[in-house]
Amino acid sequence: MTTEDESPKIICANPDCRVAETGRCVEGLALDACHHYGVDAEVMDDEAPVEDGRAESVTLPSGGALTPAQAADVLRWGAARVVAVIGPSDSGKTSLIASLYDLFQEGSVDGIEFSRSRTLHAFEHTCHDARALSRRGVPHTHRTPRGEVSFYHLEVGGGAAGEQLALLIGDRAGEEYREAADDITVVSRFSEVARADTLTVLVNGERLLGGGRHNLRHDITMMLQGLRDGGGLRKGGRLALVLTKLDAVQAAEEAARALRDFELLLQDLQRLFGDVLALITPFRVAASPKTDTMPRGTGVGALLSFWLGQVDAPTSVVRRRPVHARMFARLQAVEESLELQHG
Amino acid sequence: MAERSVVIIGLPASGKTTFLAALWHLVTARDVETTLRFGGLRAGDASHLNAIAARWRDAKVQDRTAVSGNRLVSMNLLNSDGVPVRVTFPDVPGEAYRRMWEDRDCQVEIAEVLQAGGVLLFIHADTIQTPKWIVDEVALSKRLGLEVPDGEVVPWHPRLSPTQVQIVDLLQLLRTPPLDVGPRRLAVMLSAWDKADGEGLSPAAYLEAKLPLLAQYLGRRADLWTSRVYGLSAQGGDYDPVEEHADRLPAAEDLRNLDRASMRIRLVGIDSKTHDLTEPLAWLME
Fold first, then answer.
1. Which residue of chain B has the CA closest to A296?
2. How far is B119 from chain A (nearest CA, A)?
3. Given B156, B162, B217, which is nearest A114 (Cβ)?
């Protein structure tokens, strides 16, 4: 393998290695430890076909989070549920999403099984900082950066999912939702909220333990008010009110008060938004506990079942993907620039 | 003569080349009854198959340098009705499949190979990388009175992902454009089964226990794979290392002492144990 510019040529005897482009050994070795590195392929193996590492290649789906247009494509091809997870940036949104995916690594979740996912890279990246291979001392999750919403994709079957159901989980920076209370015009950008079969509002349990508990309850109420007045709440929609970091709450002296605050918030939301939302249901989760006082993913299975539950309006016009024997018959028209629409 | 192809896939060091070596020995030695039988040598280069089968008979680990590069190998076989069939397999280094997961691309010639016939998927039963979580490891360290490991933080890289995630993604890619050619049969070969069968599980139960995400994916059949799971010991035990002056292993010597090398091979199916490596191939080509 060689480079074409004026810099010294980087060569490797392994025809599958692209060290000249990536700087990484395909075997995962340090360059000075790889016995292929720096050796011409013809010298190593006269009989092996000499390959150009940059041979023509085909691009495969990225495995990253889906754009709104890609999410709309999922909605067209089968039964699906859209979930918008909203809450301040430290409320545990990324932990919740990562924990849900990681539960399937060990088996079915409340009778629901993993079927497939178009976003395995995105899930894996999200889970990494809670995994032992990250070499962190305590689980950690990154904040979602500001910008366009993206979607995690999970297809599941069995239990509450029935035969087969796709789940699209919207991922947007928490700060953006919070701005709805300051200026309701931002709500028009939140296509995932308007389209959601279930809104999921996260209540940071750790914040309920401290002096900020009144502001937290007020912030959530006003954020939902902004979504409602900005036209973001769908009539007859469902809302999951989720107390996160339950492990920290249970371990604190103020546990009883925090749980009572959560109950009061639930009552307030049912009183203020019950005319728009058909169902407001509470959940308590410990998605990624910092210690082993609670199992990972406590409460997440129940929330998943709620997300997959029956909704009033169909999410989309379902077109079953036909199976054709001939390649030509499998060609499909590609539609571009699709936006998430109301069901 | 009918032309059939079987796709062999698997991550690096999953036993793909060892399988081909054992298969070529088995059909050419003709000392064990097999579903598919040797159909003779025809025009075409059999040197690669002969070379890897010779190393296998000598109980030597396949030299990865010698098997680098993409190759197509063909065998002339007779099916159970005596009808000649020429079966073509790719012998492609596992790095090509790892690149599909990590870099999200695939060489054109490999993409073409992947679109032919049923699929033999190799997973090394003894080197499965399972997901592990910080909280569990910290709790274990504390229970054992050990210091909690706290080294330099390792950034995410796709190679760190669990084996089952990489395999599920590979299978999904085969059912997604531009590689999709419709529903296919899939034989999951749990290689190095001699290292795994001490657990007393059937191959299907082992898959469910050690690779639950993959088991769910295959069980739900969202991608319409028709699958079977086999436990395969194509080597029969540990082989001598590649290095020229390395010590010879007693286990490898025992294998060389068998009167018939074909007896090293063990294939465990749903409810059968056999030396017949051609059984999954025959099923894939039905």
1. B135
2. 18
3. B217
CB contact under 8 A, B220 and A63: no
Are the CB atoms for B189 and B230 separated by under 8 Å?
yes
Rounded CA gap, B69 and A17, in Å?
11
CB-nearest to A104 from B139, B216, B223 is B216
Which residues in B154-165 are b (16+ Cβ under 10 Å) and which e?
eebebeebbbbb
Measured in angstroms, the CA of B163 and the nearest CA of chain A are apart by 11
State how beta strands A165-171 and A150-157 pair: antiparallel
Is B213's pLDDT higher than 80? yes
| Residue whose structure tokens are 């506990």 | A289
**What residues of chain B lie within 8 A of the CB of A28, using their CB?**
159
Query: Does the global pTM surpass 0.90?
Result: no
As a whole number, mean pLDDT of residues A1-25 equals 54
The ipTM value here is 0.90
Are B133 and A102 a contacting pair at CB < 8 A?
yes
Per-residue pLDDT, B264: 87
- Which two three-digit tokens encode residue A203? 């209540």
Residue A305 is inside which H or E element, if any? helix A300-308
Give the residue among B181, B179, B266, B269 at the shortest CA–CA distance from B227.
B269
**pLDDT tens digits, one per residue of A110-133:** 999 999 999 999 999 999 988 888
**Dist CA A200 CA A274 (whole Å):** 15
Rounded Cα gap, residues A14 and A25, in angstroms: 10
Average pLDDT, stretch B231-259?
73
- The alpha-carbon gap from A58 to the nearest alpha carbon of chain B, in Å, equals 5
Q: Does the beta-carbon distance from B133 to A135 stay under 8 Å? A: no
Domains of chain A and any CATH numbers: 4-47 (no CATH), 68-308 (3.40.50.300)
Which has the closest alpha carbon to A190: A228, A157, A236, A134? A228
Give the CA-trace dihedral at B33, B37, B15, B205, to 10 degrees.
-50
- The answer to whether the CB of B88 falls within 8 A of the CB of B4 is yes
What are the tokens at A93?
């949104």
Cβ <8 Å between A124 and B148: no
